[in-house]
Design goal:
The complex is a heterodimer of chains A (about 110) and B (about 120). Chain A is mainly β and about 110 residues long. Chain A contains no helices and 11 strands. Chain B has no helices and 11 strands. Classes of the chains: A mainly beta (about 110), B mainly beta (about 120).
């Protein structure tokens, strides 16, 4: 069964800290993996997309890594800011499907 | 770019009425669109996959007679929640696949917050 899990469920950090969000998935036969941000009551903002052949992607203060063999991805946020407060979702698309399977998300609070 | 517009963003309706949500791809053609829903404090779950010109494929546990999906053109898919009940209150979001795009061809709408009172 295709499953995506995320740890921790919630995280609260002071401004300026570097932090890591974790995503795990069953079955390494993935097509790609995507990290999203969701603000309360809002839609999804795509942050980073990693293809199955890639090991990491970077955008500004964000870096996402992918280890297919262990079924893991991490999202690293450097120098966190209060504006980073949101729920971060990891979503996986497997080779044999078209849709994304979402993890439950990590709710991040960055305190000023 | 690839923009997906979803309307309405919020809707409140009375129990027993029907609500239509639209998902439009503004600058590309979408052969496939996906409808997800998210209950409070839960993750997004796929409801159905709609393909232009054919019937939608529903995930297990999703009532096809209650959640009517129409994908009559390459730029528009609609989800109609029929005879809505309070338990249908949720966040609904669509995703469109850009025809011919490789490898990244999925764009998400901004979502619709449905509240049934």
């Amino acid at each position: 069964k295709q499953e995506v899990t995320q740890i921790p469920a919630a995280l609260s950090v002071p401004e300026g800290e570097n932090l890591v969000l974790n995503c795990s998935f069953t079955d390494s036969a993935i097509y790609n993996l995507q990290w999203f941000r969701q603000d309360p009551g809002k839609g999804l903002t795509s942050l980073l997309l990693i293809q199955s052949s890639q090991r990491e992607q970077t955008s500004g203060r964000l870096n996402a890594s992918l280890d297919k063999s262990s079924g893991r991805s991490t999202l690293y946020i450097a120098a966190s800011q209060p504006g980073d407060s949101a729920t971060y979702l990891c979503a996986v698309r497997w080779n044999y499907g078209q849709n994304f399977v979402f993890g439950p998300g990590t709710r991040l609070s960055v305190l000023p | 770019g690839a923009v997906v517009s979803q309307h309405p963003s919020r809707v409140i309706c009375k129990s027993g009425t029907s609500v239509k949500i639209e998902c439009r791809s503004l600058d590309f053609q979408a052969t496939t669109m996906f409808w997800y829903r998210q209950f409070p404090k839960q993750s997004l779950m796929l409801m159905a996959t709609s393909n232009e010109g054919s019937k939608a494929t529903y995930e297990q546990g999703v009532e096809k007679d209650k959640f009517l999906i129409n994908h009559a053109s390459l730029t528009l898919s609609t989800l109609t929640v029929t005879s809505a009940h309070p338990e249908d209150s949720s966040f609904y979001i669509c995703s469109a696949r850009k025809q011919g795009a490789r490898p990244y061809g999925y764009t998400f709408g901004s979502g619709t917050r449905l509240t049934v009172v």
